[in-house]
UniProtKB/TrEMBL annotation:
The keyword Nucleus applies. This is Nitroreductase domain-containing protein. CDD domains: Frm2-like. It comes from the Eukaryota. It comes from Leptomonas pyrrhocoris (Firebug parasite).
Length: 202
Protein backbone atom coordinates (compact mmCIF):
# COMPACT_ATOMS: atom_id res chain seq x y z
CA UNK A 1 0.00 0.00 0.00
CA UNK A 2 1.46 3.41 -0.92
CA UNK A 3 2.25 5.68 2.00
CA UNK A 4 -0.37 8.15 0.79
CA UNK A 5 -3.04 5.47 1.22
CA UNK A 6 -1.91 4.83 4.77
CA UNK A 7 -2.07 8.54 5.62
CA UNK A 8 -5.53 8.65 4.05
CA UNK A 9 -6.55 5.72 6.25
CA UNK A 10 -5.33 7.26 9.51
CA UNK A 11 -7.01 10.56 8.61
CA UNK A 12 -10.36 8.79 9.07
CA UNK A 13 -9.60 8.35 12.78
CA UNK A 14 -11.44 11.13 14.56
CA UNK A 15 -13.00 11.70 17.98
CA UNK A 16 -16.67 10.89 17.44
CA UNK A 17 -18.92 12.09 20.25
CA UNK A 18 -22.27 11.43 18.59
CA UNK A 19 -22.39 7.65 18.74
CA UNK A 20 -25.20 5.21 18.08
CA UNK A 21 -25.55 1.56 19.05
CA UNK A 22 -25.53 0.17 15.52
CA UNK A 23 -22.49 -1.55 14.03
CA UNK A 24 -21.78 -2.33 10.36
CA UNK A 25 -20.19 -5.63 11.36
CA UNK A 26 -20.97 -8.40 13.83
CA UNK A 27 -19.59 -8.36 17.36
CA UNK A 28 -17.31 -11.26 16.41
CA UNK A 29 -15.89 -9.34 13.45
CA UNK A 30 -15.38 -6.16 15.45
CA UNK A 31 -13.73 -8.13 18.23
CA UNK A 32 -11.36 -9.75 15.75
CA UNK A 33 -10.45 -6.34 14.32
CA UNK A 34 -9.62 -5.03 17.79
CA UNK A 35 -7.62 -8.10 18.76
CA UNK A 36 -5.72 -8.20 15.45
CA UNK A 37 -4.84 -4.50 15.68
CA UNK A 38 -3.43 -4.85 19.20
CA UNK A 39 -1.59 -8.04 18.31
CA UNK A 40 0.36 -6.25 15.57
CA UNK A 41 1.52 -3.36 17.77
CA UNK A 42 5.16 -3.06 18.84
CA UNK A 43 6.33 -3.13 22.45
CA UNK A 44 9.69 -2.88 24.21
CA UNK A 45 11.63 -6.13 23.86
CA UNK A 46 8.39 -7.57 22.42
CA UNK A 47 6.92 -7.84 25.92
CA UNK A 48 3.36 -7.53 24.54
CA UNK A 49 2.10 -5.94 27.75
CA UNK A 50 -1.06 -4.39 26.29
CA UNK A 51 -4.32 -5.93 27.47
CA UNK A 52 -7.91 -5.18 26.45
CA UNK A 53 -11.40 -5.88 27.72
CA UNK A 54 -13.98 -5.66 24.92
CA UNK A 55 -17.54 -5.07 26.06
CA UNK A 56 -20.92 -5.00 24.32
CA UNK A 57 -24.55 -4.70 25.36
CA UNK A 58 -25.25 -4.57 29.08
CA UNK A 59 -21.54 -4.94 29.89
CA UNK A 60 -20.80 -1.82 27.82
CA UNK A 61 -23.62 0.04 29.58
CA UNK A 62 -22.31 -1.06 32.97
CA UNK A 63 -19.00 0.73 32.31
CA UNK A 64 -20.74 4.06 31.88
CA UNK A 65 -23.13 3.47 34.77
CA UNK A 66 -20.01 2.98 36.89
CA UNK A 67 -18.57 6.22 35.50
CA UNK A 68 -21.76 8.14 36.34
CA UNK A 69 -21.89 6.74 39.85
CA UNK A 70 -18.26 7.73 40.42
CA UNK A 71 -18.80 11.23 39.02
CA UNK A 72 -21.82 11.75 41.24
CA UNK A 73 -19.61 11.29 44.30
CA UNK A 74 -17.09 13.98 43.28
CA UNK A 75 -19.17 16.69 41.57
CA UNK A 76 -21.81 19.19 42.54
CA UNK A 77 -25.40 18.61 41.43
CA UNK A 78 -24.98 21.14 38.61
CA UNK A 79 -21.69 19.65 37.47
CA UNK A 80 -23.09 16.15 37.62
CA UNK A 81 -26.06 17.03 35.43
CA UNK A 82 -23.72 18.19 32.68
CA UNK A 83 -21.44 15.17 33.12
CA UNK A 84 -24.37 12.75 33.07
CA UNK A 85 -25.66 14.25 29.83
CA UNK A 86 -22.23 13.92 28.23
CA UNK A 87 -21.78 10.32 29.35
CA UNK A 88 -25.26 9.33 28.19
CA UNK A 89 -25.07 11.08 24.84
CA UNK A 90 -21.44 10.55 23.88
CA UNK A 91 -20.34 7.25 25.43
CA UNK A 92 -23.17 5.10 26.78
CA UNK A 93 -25.12 5.67 23.54
CA UNK A 94 -22.52 3.64 21.64
CA UNK A 95 -22.47 -0.08 20.89
CA UNK A 96 -19.40 -1.11 22.88
CA UNK A 97 -16.35 -0.11 24.87
CA UNK A 98 -12.73 -1.18 24.82
CA UNK A 99 -10.92 -0.94 28.15
CA UNK A 100 -7.17 -0.64 27.61
CA UNK A 101 -4.84 -2.01 30.27
CA UNK A 102 -1.13 -2.62 30.74
CA UNK A 103 0.12 -5.74 32.53
CA UNK A 104 2.28 -4.52 35.40
CA UNK A 105 3.65 -8.01 36.06
CA UNK A 106 5.04 -8.07 32.52
CA UNK A 107 6.69 -4.69 33.11
CA UNK A 108 8.19 -5.85 36.42
CA UNK A 109 9.54 -8.89 34.61
CA UNK A 110 11.31 -6.64 32.14
CA UNK A 111 12.75 -4.53 34.94
CA UNK A 112 14.13 -7.64 36.60
CA UNK A 113 15.53 -9.06 33.36
CA UNK A 114 17.06 -5.79 32.16
CA UNK A 115 17.91 -3.70 35.25
CA UNK A 116 19.90 -1.19 33.21
CA UNK A 117 16.64 -0.03 31.61
CA UNK A 118 14.41 -0.49 34.68
CA UNK A 119 13.32 3.14 34.89
CA UNK A 120 12.35 3.20 31.22
CA UNK A 121 10.03 0.22 31.07
CA UNK A 122 6.98 1.91 32.68
CA UNK A 123 7.38 4.79 30.21
CA UNK A 124 7.76 2.43 27.27
CA UNK A 125 4.68 0.59 28.49
CA UNK A 126 2.68 3.80 28.16
CA UNK A 127 4.08 4.23 24.64
CA UNK A 128 2.98 0.69 23.74
CA UNK A 129 -0.51 1.32 25.06
CA UNK A 130 -0.79 4.55 23.10
CA UNK A 131 0.19 2.72 19.91
CA UNK A 132 -2.42 0.02 20.63
CA UNK A 133 -5.09 2.64 21.23
CA UNK A 134 -4.27 4.43 17.99
CA UNK A 135 -4.18 1.18 16.04
CA UNK A 136 -7.60 0.08 17.30
CA UNK A 137 -9.10 3.54 16.78
CA UNK A 138 -7.79 3.65 13.21
CA UNK A 139 -8.86 0.09 12.42
CA UNK A 140 -12.40 0.75 13.62
CA UNK A 141 -12.54 3.90 11.50
CA UNK A 142 -11.80 1.85 8.37
CA UNK A 143 -15.09 0.02 8.95
CA UNK A 144 -17.00 3.24 9.51
CA UNK A 145 -17.11 2.76 13.28
CA UNK A 146 -16.75 5.90 15.37
CA UNK A 147 -14.88 6.09 18.67
CA UNK A 148 -13.32 8.43 21.18
CA UNK A 149 -10.76 8.02 23.94
CA UNK A 150 -11.59 8.68 27.59
CA UNK A 151 -9.62 8.63 30.85
CA UNK A 152 -11.74 8.17 33.98
CA UNK A 153 -9.08 5.81 35.29
CA UNK A 154 -8.68 6.47 39.01
CA UNK A 155 -12.40 7.08 39.50
CA UNK A 156 -13.49 3.72 38.13
CA UNK A 157 -10.60 1.25 38.11
CA UNK A 158 -11.52 -0.56 41.32
CA UNK A 159 -15.20 -0.81 40.38
CA UNK A 160 -14.37 -2.08 36.89
CA UNK A 161 -12.07 -4.69 38.38
CA UNK A 162 -14.86 -5.99 40.56
CA UNK A 163 -17.55 -5.78 37.87
CA UNK A 164 -15.59 -7.64 35.18
CA UNK A 165 -13.14 -9.74 37.22
CA UNK A 166 -10.08 -7.85 35.94
CA UNK A 167 -6.72 -9.17 37.23
CA UNK A 168 -5.14 -7.06 39.95
CA UNK A 169 -1.94 -6.64 37.96
CA UNK A 170 -3.70 -5.05 34.99
CA UNK A 171 -3.45 -1.26 35.18
CA UNK A 172 -6.23 0.76 33.52
CA UNK A 173 -4.98 3.20 30.88
CA UNK A 174 -7.99 4.34 28.82
CA UNK A 175 -11.57 3.69 27.79
CA UNK A 176 -12.73 3.73 24.16
CA UNK A 177 -16.49 3.84 23.56
CA UNK A 178 -17.40 2.98 19.95
CA UNK A 179 -20.45 2.68 17.75
CA UNK A 180 -22.19 4.04 14.69
CA UNK A 181 -21.32 7.56 13.60
CA UNK A 182 -24.50 9.56 14.10
CA UNK A 183 -22.76 12.86 13.38
CA UNK A 184 -19.25 13.22 11.90
CA UNK A 185 -16.52 15.21 13.59
CA UNK A 186 -15.95 18.80 12.59
CA UNK A 187 -13.20 19.42 10.02
CA UNK A 188 -9.75 19.01 11.55
CA UNK A 189 -7.56 22.09 11.83
CA UNK A 190 -3.76 22.15 11.85
CA UNK A 191 -1.09 24.46 13.20
CA UNK A 192 1.48 25.83 10.76
CA UNK A 193 4.06 23.27 9.62
CA UNK A 194 6.84 25.75 10.43
CA UNK A 195 5.92 25.50 14.11
CA UNK A 196 5.92 21.71 14.07
CA UNK A 197 8.59 20.36 11.76
CA UNK A 198 12.31 20.93 11.26
CA UNK A 199 13.89 19.40 8.16
CA UNK A 200 17.65 19.46 7.54
CA UNK A 201 20.01 17.73 5.17
CA UNK A 202 19.81 19.39 1.74
Amino acid sequence: MPASKYVEAISKRRSIYNLGNKLPRSHAEVTKTIEDAIRQCPSSFNVQSSRAVILYGNSHKKVWDIVKAALKKVTSAEQYAASEAKVNGCFLAGAGTVLFYEDTEAIKGQQKAYPLYADNFPVWSQHSSAIAQFAVWTALAQDGIGASLQHYNQLIEADLRQAFDIPEHWSLIAQMPFGSIEKPADPKTYIDDEKRFIVRGE
